[in-house]
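Posted in: Structural Biology > Protein-Ligand Complexes

Title: Requesting predicted complex, heme C in pocket

I'd be grateful if someone could produce the 3D structure tokens for the following input. Sequence and ligand are given below.
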Amino acid sequence: MSRIVSRVVLAALAAGTVALAHGAAFAADARKGKDAFMKYGCWQCHGTEGQGSSITSAGKALAPDPMPLDTFVAFVRATDRAMPPYSEKVLPNEDLADMHAYLASIPKAKDYKSIPLLNQ
Ligand code: HEC
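-- Reply #1 --
Done. Output follows.
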């Protein structure tokens, strides 16, 4: 009896794992994208929120309002000027899509005119 139960449990677990793996393949995840943006060192030139960096005077602002995903991916793969290119071997498409979702999730700064303390 308990053998059958554990088989059913195992089968359910296996099905759950497959379902999770599928979900991960399709939905870009902004939280994972933030981790990837840090892990691959993009923040060092572009700032932790993609705001651009004046310290290295290198990386342009990438957010808010990032370029479309396919342009973003094409640039990262093929850039040959100041930014090093990242091949798919080093940086998988899935991580790039997550990073793009992260950049897209960053809100625009408020207009200072809408902040009373800055308008006295
Ligand atoms: C060594 C510094 C450096 C690192 C690290 C770096 N970048 Fe860049 N990035 C740059 C510079 C400089 C430019 C502008 C280059 C140019 O116009 O050729 C740029 C441009 C870009 C652009 C095009 C922006 C535009 O509006 O034209 C994208 C997209 C981009 N980077 C994404 C990334 C991502 C994603 C990573 C991490 C995987 C990354 N970069 C890592 C320096 C860097």
